[in-house]
Specification:
With about 350 residues, the protein is of the alpha/beta class. The chain is built from 15 helices and eleven strands.
């Protein structure tokens, strides 16, 4: 059964009310996260007044929030003092090794999803502007969320892509460089270039330097929607990129990727790849709505659509594989004797 499909009990009046109000616990958690409330309790129990003072927040508002958090099991109450449960202390206190930093991006998504009704009416989100223009806080939270989400799966994905004969990888829109780092670690002799926007590349360099891979991973600044891609690569990699674009933008982008390949090189696309009737995977149906509220023309796309863009770009030997992570992998090859279309 789909993880998002409801049973008959959920479709009763009480079940529907519970579904409709499910946003409330989510908002309580995200507000506490945004305020830094769990971090304020990182050194032990405190009263709501003490926490409010530490956060610069209203005492009554903080008190009511903390009582709601306790009712959800996100805080433990000891008389007039509250404390983090062990799991919360591990994952929601900034600076802990297991800190769940990706919730910052989730909080931004919550604000976008409040406009779903209007986005459905108009067929997309109002122009959000380029990522470079959304502010340093938004950008850092976004890149960190994408890095944290991919870090656990990138090594397995790198092994899923046959790197035999691959010396140079172009990671388009590669963000933190998490996949480039996985490629470099998976096979000796592989180097990578992360191509991303001017405000992203400094963050990329920080992540790469932190992992000690600056000698094998470099960066190139540009906008893939308007700029040509550098050339001479054996693999051009696109992860979580095509869902932000319109079909026309993706066709043009895949063409640029093909032109960046050495003869015999491949383009690999990782994303939520839908079946032809767009009913599965179930999480892809929700992600299509996420693109509706967050972008002007982004969407989830089918294997047939991605394959058609690759064919138009002069790629062949197109294969589709499901990954263990709920995404799909589509790979097309530039024939050694077939140049990409001009």
């Amino acid at each position: 059964m789909s993880p998002h499909r409801t049973n008959d009990d959920a479709l009763t009046p009480d079940g529907l009310r519970q579904m409709a109000s499910a946003f409330q616990p989510s908002r309580v958690l995200l507000t506490a996260y945004e305020l830094g409330l769990f971090t304020a309790l990182g050194n032990g129990p405190r009263t709501p007044a003490e926490v409010a003072d530490a956060l610069g927040a209203d005492a009554r508002g903080t008190d009511r929030l903390m009582r709601a958090l306790a009712s959800l099991g996100l805080l433990h109450r000891h008389g007039d003092r509250f404390a983090n449960p062990p799991a919360v202390d591990t994952h929601l206190v900034e600076g802990r090794p297991g800190y769940f930093s990706g919730l910052g991006h989730t909080a931004h998504l919550w604000h976008s999803w409040t406009h779903l009704t209007e986005a459905v009416r108009r067929g997309g989100a109002p122009a959000a502007g380029p990522i470079d223009d959304r502010g340093g806080e938004w950008l850092a939270a976004f890149i960190e969320a994408m890095h944290a989400r991919a870090a656990a799966t990138a090594p397995d994905l790198a092994r899923l892509i046959d790197l035999d004969g691959v010396g140079r990888v172009l990671d388009v829109g590669g963000g933190s460089g998490v996949y480039s780092m996985a490629f470099a670690r998976t096979r000796d002799g592989v180097s990578a270039t992360v191509f991303d926007l001017p405000n992203v590349v400094p963050l990329t360099r920080q992540y790469v330097a932190r992992e000690g891979l600056g000698d094998r991973i470099d960066t190139a600044v540009g906008d893939y929607t308007t700029d040509p891609l550098p050339g001479g690569y054996d693999l051009v990699f696109l992860s979580a990129i095509i869902h932000s674009n319109s079909p026309g933008q993706n066709a043009a982008l895949i063409g640029k990727c093909a032109a960046a390949l050495n003869p015999g090189g491949r383009v690999a696309v990782v994303d939520f790849i839908m079946d032809d009737d767009r009913a599965a995977p179930a999480h892809g149906t929700l992600f299509a709505l996420n693109m509706l509220v967050a972008t002007e023309a982004g969407d989830t796309y089918t294997q047939r659509e991605v394959g058609a863009w690759m064919t138009s770009a002069g790629l062949d030997d197109i294969v589709h594989r499901d990954t263990p992570f709920g995404t799909g992998l589509v790979i097309g090859r530039r024939s050694a004797d077939r140049p990409p279309p001009a």
